[in-house]
Amino acid sequence: MTIANNSAYYEIDPLSAFSERGVDYAKYRPTYPPNVIDTILRELGEPSQLAAADVGAGTGIASRLLAERGIHVWAIEPNTSMRTAAQNHPLVKFCDASAEQTHLPTASVDLITSFQAFHWFNPQPTLAEFHRILKPSGRLAIAWNQRAADDEFSVEFDRLVKASMSELPTTKPQNSVARILMSSSHFGRVRRHTFTYKHELDLVGTVGYALSKSFVPQEGAAHRQLLVDLQELHARWADERGMVSFVYHTTLYLAQPQHGLNKLRRLFSNWLIAK
């Protein structure tokens, strides 16, 4: 895979980036704290009456969290490896589709979520598609788990993982989402929330978590060196149970669809700013 300097993630083929990583992703990627889901669902109404589209659903980690609250979920995921590794849930239906073309009916969902995935979408056509399928009373929720920059173990893990990668986009996935949402004519009332979460893994899980990442080599000298480095790191940081803890800050952005007069006001406001 060749990555141009300053490439955005959505300019890279996510189907090849996550090929054959679904099993490790399903087993070892972190979940999301319950208060994230609580915040997303607040004031949306009775969960059993809601329909959601979880876009870039991966192996369905967040889709199942929503379904466990009683929500009917369309899990939109174009990667076969990820869909195949997903655990079944009676309220989750996986769809082979993309963020830019979900193939869902217009105004058909009360909630759109994207967990750890929005950076893989082309933002302008994606937000237009989100606006199309979302009910006027609906909500958009975009979230990332970010390893804490002040946690020494997480920082060292990041250093080893990045050292194994020969290529990596220079843009940080979550840096531009607020700007993209604020400048969109399709969405308004953007709010940001932050939560803290810990994820425990044994040695097998730590290695599997690293290998689930899109640009980590799956073979060769760099792959073998990473395995050695991770074993040494785990040995130094593991507790008496053989577990290490990753500390995350989960960042959540919420936004509402803009319609009619509100959309015109937003466009006019943007025009005045541009003047």
UniProtKB/TrEMBL annotation:
Keywords from the UniProt entry: Methyltransferase, Transferase
Protein name: Methyltransferase
Source organism superkingdom: Bacteria
GO molecular function: S-adenosylmethionine-dependent methyltransferase activity
Residue ranges that the Swiss-Prot or TrEMBL entry lists as coiled coil: none
Domain Methyltransferase type: 54-142
The keyword Methyltransferase is assigned to this record: yes
Record-level GO BP terms: methylation
Protein family per UniProt: Belongs to the methyltransferase superfamily.
A UniProt-annotated Pfam family: Methyltransf_11
InterPro entries: Diverse_substrate_MTase (IPR051052), Methyltransf_11 (IPR013216), SAM-dependent_MTases_sf (IPR029063)
